[in-house]
Design a protein that fits this description.
The complex is a heterodimer of chains A (86) and B (591). Chain A is mainly α. In chain A, 73% of the residues lie in helices and 5% in strands. Chain A has helices at 4-35, 50-80, and strands spanning 44-45, 48-49. Chain A has a two-stranded antiparallel ribbon with strand order 1-2. In chain B, 58% of the residues are buried. Chain B has 591 residues and is mainly alpha-helical. Chain B has helices spanning 3-24, 30-35, 42-53, 56-67, 74-98, 103-110, 114-146, 151-201, 206-209, 225-235, 247-262, 265-268, 277-295, 298-313, 330-336, 362-369, 383-391, 396-434, 440-463, 469-493, 499-521, 547-564, 570-580, 585-590, and strands at residues 323-324, 341-342, 351-352, 378-379. In chain B, helix 4 (56-67) packs across helix 17 (383-391) and helix 5 packs parallel to helix 11 (247-262). A two-stranded antiparallel sheet of chain B has the order 1-3. In chain B, strands 2-4 form a two-stranded antiparallel sheet. Chain B has a domain at 3-215 and 241-303 and 394-467: Sodium/glucose cotransporter, CATH 1.20.1730. Chain B has 24 helices and 4 strands. Classes of the chains: A mainly alpha (86), B mainly alpha (591). At the A-B interface, helix 1, strand 2 and helix 2 of A face helix 5, helix 10, helix 11 and helix 13 of B.
């Protein structure tokens, strides 16, 4: 087990990463797909507007990218801070 | 060969496959029974999680939910997938590091309290039992429609099949059966969708077809599919398919489904089966990949089916005559028998007019053209997916595949729920609270007996569904959001959170959610005991949307009570520290 200060740095890096990911998560789903739909209504996609696309497909694709990005970054952080599983 | 025989062969073959897996994947230890020996590859676990999660509701009902409402019901698509982001970042890897077998076990150990453990067991059982009733009903209905056996017999068959592989193999048997069930259900869902998309738009990928232009030879060729659909619906007095109604309520319901999803114990325990913490992270991503394959197709199925139904009812366009009753396609006859579909020639002109007679603007048009109300009187939304192959005039084996797919979706979710229930009983109640000295083989036997009892209860409730089954599903999601999710999350992210805070939080979430549901839907859902009606919702919030508010009460109560009481002991703070870092997860595996 590595020392306390390193674990603290690891944990705050994790919290920062989770924070960024959840902001994107919220902007894609609650934002573009629902509450901010009027703002992006001018952009048309396949016979409707961008908000409709986000609600039916876009947000799911964003969720997918977010989870894989988080997994990749966290597994890298584990190694950087020496807390990965041997 | 007639259709029923073909259905029997395909469904029978899928059952033979599940039994084969059950015999191959027998569980020899509690670790195998509860967590498949923690040896499941993250991609395989992702596939099993997808089958575990996608229930009869996702497979059969979701496309119909979207088809008849349009944009607004996209909330089911986002709500039932967005929870995986929360699970992947806030719960799954840490609970895997903790390295135990059940969700109440984490609550009990982290909050060093058997009271907290028992409250968590109660929440888990209420959530999972409610859920399992719907799955058993779904399987029973699929049996009765496709195999022409009574619903009761269908339920007994479903119960027996789950019994064989869940009791023999526990989590190990369930995992590999779910992988097979995923393959069956995704093929069954996708094939008809591809053909319909090709017919309407010429694009073989339904998700892309939804945003494409109509193919040559269809009504509205060259125009976007969604523009055509919006036009048809407004001409008939329905709301535009792409229109927004109340964005704030939609956002709240989406959030409720997201937090609820992340707090569902039968999904969380799937992440205990992978070998490493890093695998738990990848696995959540793979689960969403396999879920997205269906969830990106579902809105296309919904919109295209709505378009197909509308043009079936108005074959020569809305400005001309409606379809004659005698000319309705064959699948109308098949489904009319089930009572899920009904037409009534109200004005006696031999034609079936389908329009929105509740829209006052349509009254003048109806009078001018001699319509006497909407004549497509019943159209159950669940027909959409089940009748899809018939609507697209696909061969009989595709219809048989849909039968096997619907049953697979129901059984895979039922098995996951039953495992969550039986492991909470055998591991958290019997081993942790009543008989701590029970031996490994004794606990394995107890787990198998709990599984048998849970299946019997599930079949019984499926045979005699409480009249309030629909409302209770709202309770399941609301409770998962208001009780388990905040408690698990604070257990990881707050070292200061203590047992008094956690118990106060869970009770605040549980009581506020139950109270809000009971006030509007009746106490314990008994008809006639509701205090308020739907016009008196607090801030206009329906009970189904209450999850995030219950979760907020949980967080506030937990925070206040924990600050007023002593910090948790040092060893618990060390436990939280160790859960936060992946190193050492291998040691916990030996457990």
């Amino acid at each position: 087990m590595s020392d306390d200060s390193d674990n603290k740095a690891y944990w705050s890096a994790n919290l920062r990463l989770v924070g960024i990911c959840l902001v994107i998560w919220a902007v894609a789903s609650f934002g573009f797909a629902i509450l901010l739909r009027p703002l992006v209504a001018g952009i048309s996609v396949g016979g409707t507007d961008l908000g409709f696309w986000f609600a039916q497909q876009g947000s799911i694709l964003v969720f997918l990218v977010l989870i894989f990005f988080y997994a990749w970054r966290m597994n890298a952080l584990d190694r950087e801070h020496g807390v990965d599983e041997e | 060969m007639d259709q029923t025989t073909l259905n029997f062969i395909v469904v029978g073959a899928s059952f033979a496959l599940y039994f084969g897996i059950a015999i191959w994947a027998r569980a020899a230890s509690t670790s195998e029974f509860y967590a498949a020996g923690r040896g499941v590859n993250p991609i395989v676990n992702g596939m099993a999680t997808a089958a575990d999660w996608m229930s009869a509701a996702s497979f059969i009902s979701m496309a119909g939910l979207i088809a008849f409402v349009g944009y607004n019901n996209s909330l089911f698509l986002m709500g039932w997938t967005g929870g995986y982001v929360l699970m992947a970042m806030l719960l799954a890897p840490y609970l895997r590091k903790f390295g135990k077998f059940t969700v109440p076990e984490f609550v009990g150990d982290r909050y060093y309290s058997n009271a907290a453990r028992v409250v968590a067991v109660i929440c888990l059982i209420v959530i999972s039992v409610t859920y399992v009733i719907g799955q058993m009903r779904g399987a029973g209905i699929a049996f009765s429609r496709f195999l022409e056996v009574p619903i009761d017999i269908g339920l007994y068959i479903a119960g027996f099949v789950v019994l064989v592989y869940a009791v023999l193999g526990g989590m190990k048997g369930i995992t590999y059966t779910q992988v097979a069930q995923y393959c069956v259900l995704i093929i069954a869902y996708t094939i008809p969708a591809i053909f319909i998309s090709l017919q309407l738009t010429g694009n073989p990928i339904p998700g892309l077809g939804l945003f494409s232009t109509m193919a040559e030879g269809t009504a509205g060729a060259g125009q976007h599919l969604l523009v055509t659909l919006d036009g048809l619906l407004t001409d008939l007095g329905f709301r535009e398919y792409t229109a927004t109604t109340n964005p704030w309520l939609m956002a709240l319901y989406t959030l409720s489904l997201m937090i609820g999803t992340a707090g569902l114990p039968h999904v969380i325990i799937r992440f205990f089966t992978v070998p490493k913490v890093s695998d738990a992270r990848w696995s959540a991503g793979w689960a969403l990949v396999f879920i997205a394959l269906l969830y990106l197709t579902a809105p296309a199925v919904g919109a295209m089916a709505r378009l197909n139904i509308t043009t079936t009812m108005w074959p020569a366009g809305i400005e001309n005559d409606a379809v004659a009753e005698a000319d309705l396609p064959d699948w109308f006859e098949t489904w009319k028998v089930t009572g899920l579909l009904g037409v009534e020639d109200k004005n006696g002109d031999g034609l079936i007019q389908y329009y929105n007679d509740a829209n006052p603007d349509m009254a003048a048009i109806a009078e001018e053209r001699g319509w006497a109300g909407n004549e497509l009187v019943t159209f159950n939304r669940d027909i959409l997916v089940l009748a899809n192959p018939e609507i697209a005039q696909l061969p009989g084996w595709v219809i048989a595949l849909i039968a096997a797919g619907g049953i697979a979706a129901a059984l895979s979710t039922a098995a996951g729920l039953l495992l969550a229930i039986s492991s909470a009983i055998s591991h958290d109640l019997i081993k942790s609270v009543f008989r701590p000295d029970i031996s490994e083989s004794g606990e394995l036997l107890a787990a198998r007996i709990s599984m048998v009892v849970s299946i019997c209860v599930a079949v019984y409730l499926g045979l005699n569904p409480p009249g309030f089954a629909a409302q209770v599903v709202a309770l399941a999601f609301g409770l998962a959001a208001a009780t388990l999710f905040p408690t698990l999350m604070m257990g990881i992210f707050s070292k200061r959170m203590n047992s008094a805070g956690a118990i106060a939080g869970m009770l605040a979430g549980l009581i506020s959610t139950c109270l809000y549901l009971f006030l509007y839907l009746g106490f314990f859902f008994i008809p006639g005991t509701a205090v308020f009606d739907s016009s008196q919702y607090l801030f206009g919030i329906p009970p189904t949307h209450f999850g995030p508010i219950g979760a907020l009460f949980n967080f506030i109560a937990a925070f206040l009570v924990s600050r007023a009481t002593a910090a948790p002991p040092q060893e618990i703070q060390d436990l939280v520290e160790s859960v936060r870092v992946p190193r050492g997860a291998g040691a916990a595996q030996a457990h």
